[in-house]
Sequence to fold (322 residues):
Amino acid sequence: MLTITSIALLSVLLISPADAGRLGEPNDETRRLATSAVNLGTAGDYAILTKAGVTTTGATSVNGNVGTSPIASTAITGFGLIMDSNDTFSTSSLVTGNVYAAGYPSPTPSKLTTAISDMETAFVDAAGRVVPDHTELGAGNLEGKTLGAGLYKWGTNVHFTSSLTFSGSSTDIWILQIAQNLDVGNGAQVTLLGGAIWENIYWQVSEAAVFGTTSHVEGIFLVGTAITFNAGSSLNGAALAQTAVALDAATIVHGKQWPEKDLVGVAGEDAKRSVLLGTVKLDEANVHVLSQYAMMTMDYREDRVRIFVDSDGKVVSQPTLG
Fold:
């Protein structure tokens, strides 16, 4: 007579070696979820979102909305805020978009409470992804590396001094889980290749992120404490901080990237011709080739493309609509 114990033992003996090797391994669904997009909720409406304020010095330029909660607008300094006539947001000559603070009249406080909650949820989601494709890559030193799509995990600080490249298609997703700090060197540049877009690059940084002078980064930064942009640094993406964001003559662009073709590394005028031949019909006068350090006008236009080039005239980041 078979007992429960003998049946269990028989079941174990009948498992093939191949099946035994797969026991406890992640299934395809687990792997798919590991590198699916992180849902930002309403936090995705902001170029900068913080709990403890935003400060700026110098000629900063922010293309997108700015919000802070639960701290009041007194923690948003250096922007020369002007209250809008309906009192629910402020404007600034440094911001193409609206500036929101928890102390403004309804519905702004509840709107910000939701956005902050969504930011926290996104941070936890990104931090909780399992089955990394790469663990402790470069022992935290990413200098000169090219990252394919996937989930990356470090239990240390992460840094690079001059260059980092993300290579993949416009649908590929990168999630970088960093247990400590992120330090981007002075003049360091993040480059996107193969059609990769900043909207699909998630930096989950458990401590602080510091961007060196004239450095350029791409992606959505979900940061556990503060984000510091040193003089002349720039970001295509979003800075979402659990404490504060500090800016020094920094440029943040939260606009849409050119969707049709990877143009990084192409000569600026060649990139302009490619944009004009694309399916999005634009007037030639509205496609601008600019130095990566150029000051921009603060208006936002869906019929304009800006192409940023380095000192050699080569495109340094995917052209931006707006």
Remarks:
- Helices lie at 4-14, 17-22, 28-34, 108-127, 268-276.
- The first strand starts at residue 46 and ends at 50.
- Residues 4-24 have pLDDT under 50 and may be disordered.
